[in-house]
Write a sequence for this structure.
């Protein structure tokens, strides 16, 4: 089987704002080398963007890895429409530093939306090192809650929040986390998800003086340290999320700057998403 | 003395409507005529001016007599990529500056110097057209394999030299297409993609392959390559962009030149939305820097504006004056012809943004030239009492590059110098790790394509010597 072939596909959720899709991609080198917290870059076809996606699980035996994506923009929509047997034009990885999953004691892991999938390998890695993990998972509704069972199997406690109350507590992960921080002592926290959510988590854990790492999915092009598209300010220094990250001290990053840089291409994204969606799975230029 | 022969160029107005190559090559009669201007000096200084020592006198002599394929072969003995180097070499600082027809002690060649680069390009293109690179016949392989990390100028050159010696090179490239900076950095209007492809194909057809989408250090460790191959060459380049370190540099639509050029050259953002990578096309662009990369970024920005039907409005901001600009004179001239504006003696102080965090202006100060610095150029001295304000809604920073550190950081056994470059033996290009060699910008710091190739050739010799020692032991 050729590298980049899609071996499995699961549609987790159909929704008005795009589905959540899990893809397994054949890439023995990535399956062998990938560690929790690392990501890959995928190009759906030769005209595609270089899209960073977190490695969620690896199947070393069959030489594939899985990633989970939400069809939020044009490129993720093309990827979401690919079928088993299709092949992505390019996939490179693993990229970025692996998560430090060493023993710390009691750890709060907070994930939101599709970030829950990205949280899973970290929860598992931390649990395997003997940490007592409390996972806080936030989703829009029960329907958007993914990988709950897998995370339950690893974490000591799981707290669910949904915006509409269709599962767990109604509210945001920040509300649930505040309750937890009031009741329990944590040695460490880890968060991955939408920027506003991670920022809210960082503000809470700063207040409670819990060291916190956040994982950043900034805009990237080459994702190998060459372009600086993903640069962000951490502790007053410029860092590249692709090669210096993707995780940084959540209490040291400049959240305002991150928010602004994330929206630079909004108008182009709106434009391309308004065009009739062509089936771009097949690559005419090959 | 005959006047220099100039190849035809696209009209500047037509140029900026697309990415077509600006300079057409010489016709055969033009090449012969330009070659005939060469005095065939007894002591040809031009050869000393060439970092790879091409026998310039000899190849020009063959062009004089219409023996174009022979000229091609003579160049190829020293330089595997005449069609690339003939287009991108800063000849006016190298062979042409050394030409006896050039004025003495000038920082760069005079217009009277033989146009060696155009003749090289002519011979290179002639060779590709008429001999298919003449290396298409597969050479016998001797079973020895060398891993080449990075498929930029150093990597492909080292691969070419090894392939010629019967060793199989296997190139590992992190991006999805080979070529390194020739692919992502140099725009099509200076180096058409089919020329790049043909030159790389010539190398591969002699034996060898490119494996794209592998970031050595992450996808596999250097030690794994050392186990699997007889030797390893590292040509990972100077890929890390430098920033100015001034406030506002992280505002939206402030790009490194690497990012701006990669979005266009590699990802084809100028064909958005047919290609899916976006790019911001500013109504008023500012490019900071005075090298070739700054010229490339400025000229790309002009073309993007023209494609959107905007009035071209690109200003290059440089701390010194035109005289000290390190770019090729030809690129400067082309940029000026195309309508790029220049603001010399200007030092950026701060980028200013709007409420959305997008760049809206550049605050700067005027400089005057002071004493000469280590580079031999007069140092710019900022004058805080002479502030300047430049309106812009997009900025590109092209002030240089640092070593690519992905591999070196993940391979702590590899000895580096204080600048983060790989330490090498200057004769063999051997690194501190047995069987591992390095060349190009990762070993010598940011330099030109031909300088990288010079180092790569030296490394190839070092590798072949190392392999022969390995066999006999």
């Amino acid at each position: 089987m050729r590298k980049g072939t899609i071996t499995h596909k699961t549609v987790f959720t159909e929704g008005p704002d795009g589905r959540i899709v899990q893809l397994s991609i054949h890439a023995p080198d990535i399956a062998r080398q990938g560690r929790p917290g690392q990501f890959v870059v995928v190009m759906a076809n030769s005209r595609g963007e270089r899209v960073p996606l977190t490695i969620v699980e690896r199947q070393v035996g069959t030489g594939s890895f899985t990633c989970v994506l939400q069809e939020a923009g044009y490129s993720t929509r093309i990827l979401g429409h690919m079928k088993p047997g299709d092949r992505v034009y390019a996939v490179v990885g693993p990229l970025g530093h692996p998560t430090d999953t060493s023993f710390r004691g009691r750890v709060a892991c907070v994930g939101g939306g599709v970030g829950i999938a990205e949280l899973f390998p970290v929860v598992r890695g931390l649990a395997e090192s003997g940490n007592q993990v409390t996972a806080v998972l936030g989703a829009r509704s029960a329907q958007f809650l993914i990988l709950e069972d897998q995370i339950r199997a690893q974490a000591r406690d799981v707290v669910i929040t949904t915006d509409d109350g269709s599962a767990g507590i109604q509210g945001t992960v920040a509300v649930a986390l505040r309750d937890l921080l009031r009741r329990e002592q944590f040695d460490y926290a880890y968060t991955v998800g939408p920027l506003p959510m991670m920022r809210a988590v960082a503000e809470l854990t700063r207040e409670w003086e819990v060291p916190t790492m956040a994982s950043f999915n900034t805009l990237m092009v080459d994702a190998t340290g060459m372009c600086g598209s993903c640069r962000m300010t951490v502790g007053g220094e410029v860092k590249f999320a692709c090669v210096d990250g993707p995780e940084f001290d959540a209490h040291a990053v400049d959240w305002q700057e991150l928010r602004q840089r994330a929206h630079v291409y909004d108008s182009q994204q709106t434009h391309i998403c308004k065009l009739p969606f062509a089936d771009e799975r097949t690559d005419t230029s090959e | 003395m005959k006047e220099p022969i100039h190849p035809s160029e696209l009209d500047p107005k037509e140029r900026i409507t697309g990415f077509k190559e600006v300079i057409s090559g010489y016709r055969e009669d033009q090449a012969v005529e330009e070659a005939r201007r060469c005095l065939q000096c007894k002591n040809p200084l031009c050869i000393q001016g060439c970092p790879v020592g091409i026998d310039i006198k000899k190849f020009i002599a063959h062009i004089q007599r219409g023996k174009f394929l022979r000229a091609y072969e003579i160049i190829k003995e020293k330089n595997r990529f005449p069609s690339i180097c003939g287009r991108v070499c800063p000849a006016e600082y190298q062979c042409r500056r050394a030409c006896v027809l050039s004025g003495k002690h000038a920082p760069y060649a005079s217009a009277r110097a033989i146009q060696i680069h155009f003749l090289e390009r002519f011979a290179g293109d002639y060779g590709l057209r008429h001999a298919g690179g003449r290396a298409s016949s597969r050479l016998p392989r001797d079973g020895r394999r060398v891993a080449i990390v990075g498929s930029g100028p150093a990597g492909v050159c080292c691969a070419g030299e090894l392939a010629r010696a019967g060793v199989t090179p296997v190139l590992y490239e992190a991006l999805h297409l080979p070529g390194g900076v020739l692919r992502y950095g140099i725009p099509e209007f200076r180096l058409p993609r089919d020329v790049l492809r043909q030159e790389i194909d010539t190398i591969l057809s002699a034996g060898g392959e490119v494996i794209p989408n592998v970031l050595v250090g992450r996808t596999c460790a250097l030690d794994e390559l050392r186990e699997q191959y007889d030797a390893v060459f590292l040509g990972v380049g100077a890929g890390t962009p430098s920033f100015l370190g001034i406030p506002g540099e992280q505002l939206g639509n402030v790009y490194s030149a690497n990012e701006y050029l990669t979005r266009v050259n590699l990802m084809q953002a100028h064909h958005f939305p047919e290609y899916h990578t976006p790019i911001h096309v500013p109504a008023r662009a500012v490019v900071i820097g005075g090298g070739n990369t700054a010229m490339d970024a400025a000229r790309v920005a002009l073309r993007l504006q023209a494609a959107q039907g905007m009035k071209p409005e690109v200003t290059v901001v440089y701390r010194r004056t035109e005289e000290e600009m390190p770019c090729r004179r030809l690129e400067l001239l082309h940029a000026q012809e195309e309508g790029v504006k220049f603001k010399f003696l200007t030092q950026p102080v701060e980028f200013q943004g709007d409420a959305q965090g997008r760049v809206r202006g550049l605050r700067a100060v005027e400089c005057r030239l002071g004493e000469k610095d280590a580079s031999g150029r007069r140092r710019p001295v900022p004058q805080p009492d002479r502030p300047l304000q430049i309106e812009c809604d997009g900025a590109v920073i092209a002030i240089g590059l640092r070593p690519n550190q992905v591999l070196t950081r993940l391979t702590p056994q590899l000895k580096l110098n204080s600048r983060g470059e790989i330490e090498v033996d200057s004769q063999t290009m051997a690194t501190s790790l047995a069987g591992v060699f390095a060349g190009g910008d990762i070993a010598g710091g940011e330099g030109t394509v031909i300088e990288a190739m010079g180092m790569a050739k030296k490394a190839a010799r070092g590798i072949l010597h190392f392999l022969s020692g390995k066999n006999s032991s």
Observations:
- The two ends of chain A are 18 Å apart (CA to CA).
